[in-house]
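Summarise this fold before class:
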Amino acid sequence: MKGKHNSPNRTLAEIGEFGLIGMLRDWLSSGDPRIVLGIGGDAAALEVSGERLLLATSDIQIEETHFRRRYATMEQIGWKAMAISLSDIAAMGGAPTYALVSLGLCPQLTEDEFGKLFAGLQRAASIHGAKIVGGNLAFSGNRILVDVTLLGEVERDKILRRAGAHPGDRIYVSGFPGQSAAGYAVLNRLDRERQTPFSELIRAHLEPQPRLALGRLLAERRLASACIDISDGLSQDLSRLCEASGVGAEISADRLPLSPELQALAGQLRLDPLQLALHGGEDYELLFAVRLEVPPEKLKALQRETGTPLTEIGRILPAEEGLWLQRSGKRARLEPRGWDHFRSQSEKQ
């Protein structure tokens, strides 16, 4: 297929994951009025009937690319694979309904291991009201592959989008960004005896908690003007929200919520906690914009109801101002960085 992005000699590493998504968006643009939101969002939103939209999302997890069996249990692998798609539905303000799960399996897996993998998938789905209704099984050599397609629904006039933020809006983030990246560092750089003080960081990486209750309330109460989940890094996902909304942003490094465990680990391993929080990825927290006229008390009430920490970290700017990071009274350009499947893998090789 040809289009404005076409250059046949470029490699996928040169194009990058998000360049490929842009190509697909161009190729698959149909003008079908039933597609309310298509490629490029956290999930597709489709007209079916009535006052609710159908949400559809999918994600694939591949052994040695997304997880390693040497430190993740089979149940944790299943949980995370489902939680990632649940987080997409949360970012749209929706409720998950049904899932299809396709598994690529190794013949040497035991019945017990297979059961635990599926138990993790089912536990994550059922806690949030979704049911697994089908899928596929296939041989995948020596590596496990888990592919989840998740459906959900949301009221037409309450859907959360990446587009919608305006200059002056306040920027909030849930939870503690950087936890997952810190947990990954614990698992890969510390022996088991030294991992004990960092159990919360490990849990954040292996068993992320999708913010479905928060997303639903943000949508129902119309508190967020734009929303995205943090899967590829706060800085990178902020840039996507800004691109979709046609705005810029400024965030404060001094306001970013860094957990004591993350700061302790950063000191022990000589890591920059700010880099973990900004660019680490796989947090599956919600990053959202709130209109200036929304009283902060409403966000505090939401925090109490959901038990989810919410922190104001910046403000939306006009598009021509771009992205900025304030730190200790100094202002510098914020360069979006984070996970990109093809560029990140190329850099590792």
Summary: Residues 170-348 form a domain with the Phosphoribosyl-aminoimidazole Synthetase; Chain A, domain 2 fold (CATH 3.90.650.10).
